[in-house]
């Protein structure tokens, strides 16, 4: 394993996820979230450090799994990997959240679609950075 490329890839994936999350959850879905404010924790912002920490762990794990299974097939491999990971995480997570919280099916579908796009973009980024 090339530690330098691993570290760079992990940081890039983390920054991509943070940036895309700001656009998706802060801007695109912001109005929906404001209409659902009664179901969120009133002190949610006090716990944002946990989301940052779990996103860092996710980024490192995402890159590590890619590296261990890498076939060196370029961007197409990154797209496939991102799609599989997106289906695994977002497909299950989004619809499980729909079952637990009183949100609309439309919101769960948006979580799934946007999450899948995020993972595909992250997969592409890793495939471009971590190559021979």
- How would you classify the quaternary structure? single chain
Major sheet attributes: none
**Structural class given helices, strands, pairing?**
mainly alpha
Helix percent band: over 70%
List segments where confidence is low: pLDDT < 50 over at least 5 consecutive residues: none
> What's the overall average pLDDT, rounded?
94
Give the C-alpha Rg.
Answer: 16 Å
Distance between the termini: 11 Å
Q: Based on Cα principal axes, name the global outline.
A: elongated
Kindly state the number of beta strands. 0
DSSP helical segment count: 5
Strand content range:
under 5%
Listing every helix as H and every strand as E from the N terminus to the C terminus, the arrangement reads HHHHH
């Amino acid at each position: 394993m090339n530690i330098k490329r691993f570290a760079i890839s992990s940081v890039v994936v983390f920054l991509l996820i943070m940036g895309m999350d700001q656009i998706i959850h802060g801007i695109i879905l912001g109005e929906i979230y404001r209409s659902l404010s009664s179901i969120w924790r009133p002190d949610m912002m006090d716990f944002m450090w946990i989301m940052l920490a779990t996103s860092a762990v996710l980024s490192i794990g995402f890159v590590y799994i890619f590296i261990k299974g890498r076939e060196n097939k370029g961007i197409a491999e990154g797209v496939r990997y991102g799609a599989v990971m997106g289906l695994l995480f977002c497909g299950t997570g989004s619809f499980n959240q729909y079952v637990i919280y009183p949100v609309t099916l439309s919101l769960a579908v948006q979580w799934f679609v946007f999450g899948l796009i995020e993972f595909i973009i992250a997969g592409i980024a890793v495939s471009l950075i971590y190559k021979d």
